[in-house]
Design a protein that fits this description.
Blueprint: H1 6-13, H2 17-30, H3 38-45, H4 49-61, E1 65-68, E2 73-76, H5 79-84, H6 88-108, E3 112-118, E4 121-128, E5 143-145, H7 150-157, H8 161-171, H9 176-192, E6 195-198, E7 205-213, E8 219-228, H10 239-256
Antiparallel strand pairs: 1-2, 3-4, 3-8, 4-5, 6-7, 7-8
Helix pairs in contact: 2-4, 3-4, 6-10, 7-9
């Protein structure tokens, strides 16, 4: 019989089966918008219903999942999102950006959102609406496929080749033409300093997205305006004016986060 490798021995040493089961449940429910029953969770994770039940009870007691009585399905609550926002970098980012984003939204009469990369997708961590009756907004906490977003292009454009390769691997497979279009856009986004393109999900919307840099010059977030032209005549700012204000906004937020301490962020 073969002997375990040092790596296998180390893995066995630090195993925590109960913790692994709990994390498996959270990760599974995070990808199921309609929730899952206890039986379905057990089946998908290859576990017995009794061991899943114990995990679900603990997660319910801690407020991470909730049971909808009408369909007996378990759903994630917002607690994971709330816990993530206690993390100092995200808390500082949203604290600095939130009020400034709302002021700009009011000035240009367009909604906007702030996104970061998380698990190979874009995670929306802040969303502000404009005063108009007709708006286009993205749900706070939404995980959006990377290839479908202007924000994803902005955040990928300033990555090293190694970091970009890792991101694309984590994002999962896409049709070859969609993957190629995403990668080919990055040089142009980096050269211009922003991404401006028709929405890939909603007709008639032009997405304008610009990066927010940290003290090291890394693009850590993107602010995106899904620009809509209203036929009612309530547009306050043109597309060009909105882009200029967005660039000024992200530059100011980056400065407040310390960008420039290690030299200006790369632009070419």
């Amino acid at each position: 019989m073969s002997q375990p490798t040092p790596e296998q021995t180390e893995d066995e040493k630090y195993r925590a089966p109960a913790l692994s089961k709990g994390l498996d449940i959270l990760e599974l429910l995070a990808s199921e918008a309609e929730g899952l029953s206890q039986v379905d969770i057990a089946k998908q994770l290859g576990r017995t219903t009794s061991e899943i039940f114990r995990m679900l009870m603990v997660l319910r007691q801690r407020g991470y999942v909730d049971l909808h009585d009408e369909d007996e399905r378990y759903h994630l609550t917002t607690k994971m999102f709330e816990v993530a926002h206690r993390h100092p970098p995200i808390r500082r980012l949203t604290s600095i950006a939130g009020d400034a984003m709302q002021r700009m939204a009011n000035r240009v009469n367009q909604s906007m959102h702030l996104g970061i990369i998380h698990s190979g997708r874009l995670l929306v961590i802040a969303q502000v609406d404009c005063p108009d009756n007709n708006i286009t907004s993205v749900r706070l906490g939404a995980h959006i496929p990377l290839y479908d977003t202007a924000s994803g292009r902005v955040l990928a454009a300033w990555m090293s080749p190694e970091a970009l390769a890792a991101l694309l691997a984590e994002a999962g497979s896409e049709p070859a033409d969609k993957h190629r279009a995403f990668v080919e856009d990055l040089d142009d986004v980096r050269a211009r300093g922003y991404c401006e393109s028709p929405s890939l999900t909603i007709a008639g919307v032009t997405n304008i997205s610009a990066p927010v840099f940290d003290f090291s010059g890394k693009a850590i977030a993107a602010i995106t305006v899904p620009f809509i032209h209203r036929l009612t005549g309530t547009n306050i700012a043109t597309l060009d004016e909105c882009r200029a204000q967005l660039m000024a906004l992200t530059t100011d937020i980056s400065r407040r986060l310390g960008a420039g301490a290690s030299g200006p962020p790369p632009t070419a």
